[in-house]
Design goal:
Shape: globular
Strand content: 25-35%
Largest sheet: 9 strands, mixed
Number of helices: 9
Radius of gyration: 25 Å
């Protein structure tokens, strides 16, 4: 391809990205556009950094203050008079459109220039030799009688009478076997499971689920530990019940996240009942006996291969990193800042800490599987 054509293509892509980020700031992204933006963010660490830079409140405020000094409204009014529009239907809120257009152009050019600079200068820090690599798909299936099947890397096979198809355990809900199976996820692992009723379950590190090989009776009941995300198959005749510690969540067909580490249930869509007493609606979270409005994106980011920290303490972040990287984090000093960031879970732990450093103002060292953090 001609170099000039390549540069025009990059500029076109950057403009599209500017549009998506501008809509994100304005809160007008469609579901498809949000998925497109998420895919762009996950493409590279550079993209993640750019997104965080451009959506920081301080950055948005500075740009809007600059935009206000450009006297855009009066200039557009003068242009409108020159063009002599006659149809009232075309007379719209010019300031809003001008602001949106300027934001898109500004962000698009910023993305274009910054990506070029970062690629040309190769400023991304090199990974240390003693770095800690991220987790991966890893689980074991425990069958009645004590037999254990390692699910890591299994694609198409039959092990111990259990069929594995494209990495997934295959169940027949009409089978007579109702004995309990257990899937256990270690530190540094995650797994996606399809239950006999076609309910999808995502299991995070240090988590587990116990379920029957086929669901019989009037309910579908499972027990979990750690963090799990459910997309429950609809069956009005058989409520789906999840038990964790002293909490029971009942649903028919819905999507929700259960975090045993934070003792929180977050409802993404549908309706659920907590302990047969409290009704939750989509967009709400149950925690410490109370229902509040939920910030959904950070809660389910792990199911999309991301860390998404929103106003989170360094100690809370450390707890997540310890489980995902199977490491130990020691604080020599108190880090009092609340941090924000969206970071891919596929990067080494040093990269996560490097991206958090500018907002957390801390230093770190890695020695074997121990990370020491200090001011």
């Amino acid at each position: 391809m001609d170099p000039l054509d390549t540069r025009f293509e990059k500029l076109e892509n950057a403009t599209r990205t500017g549009y998506l980020i501008g809509c994100f700031i304005a809160g007008t992204l469609s579901i498809e556009e949000r998925e497109e933006l998420d895919a762009w963010i996950r493409e590279s660490e550079t993209n993640m950094e750019l997104f965080e830079d451009m959506t920081e409140d301080a950055m948005v405020d500075r740009f809007m203050q600059w935009l206000a000094t450009r006297d855009t409204e009066s200039k557009l009014q003068a242009t409108k008079q020159r063009l002599k529009f006659k149809k009232k239907a075309i007379v719209l809120k010019w300031w809003h459109y001008a602001a949106a257009a300027c934001i898109i152009l500004f962000i698009g050019l910023f993305v274009f220039r910054t990506q070029d600079d970062k690629i040309e200068k190769s400023t991304i820090a090199e990974t240390k030799a003693e770095d800690i690599q991220p987790g991966s798909s890893m689980a074991e299936l425990r069958l009645p009688g004590g037999k254990v099947i390692k699910l890591d890397g299994l694609k198409d096979s039959i092990v111990g009478g259990i069929k594995i198809n494209d990495g997934q355990i295959v169940y027949d809900n009409n089978a007579p076997d109702t004995k309990l199976h257990e899937v256990i996820i270690p530190r540094k692992g995650f797994y996606e499971l399809v239950l006999p009723d076609s309910t999808k379950v995502y299991l995070n590190n240090e988590s587990s689920i116990i379920y029957p090989a086929s669901f019989r009776g009037d309910t579908r009941e499972v027990t979990v530990t750690g963090e799990t995300f459910f997309e429950v198959a609809k069956d009005p005749s058989k409520p789906f019940i999840v038990s964790i510690a002293d909490t029971k969540v009942q649903a028919i067909g819905t999507a929700f996240n259960i975090n045993g580490f934070d003792k929180a249930v977050t409802l993404i869509e549908g309706v659920v009942r907590i302990n047969d007493a409290i009704t939750m609606n989509a967009g709400q979270q149950f925690r410490e006996g109370k229902i509040t409005k939920a910030d959904i994106d950070p809660v389910i980011a792990w199911t999309k291969g991301q860390f998404r920290f929103r106003n989170m303490t360094m100690k809370d972040i450390a707890a997540k990193l310890e489980r995902w990287y199977d490491c130990r984090i020691i604080f020599e000093d108190t880090i009092g800042y609340h941090l924000n960031g969206t970071i891919d879970r596929s990067v080494p732990v040093s990269r996560v800490l490097q991206l958090l450093q500018p907002t957390g103002h801390f230093q770190f060292t890695i020695n074997d599987k121990v990370i020491t953090i200090r001011k």
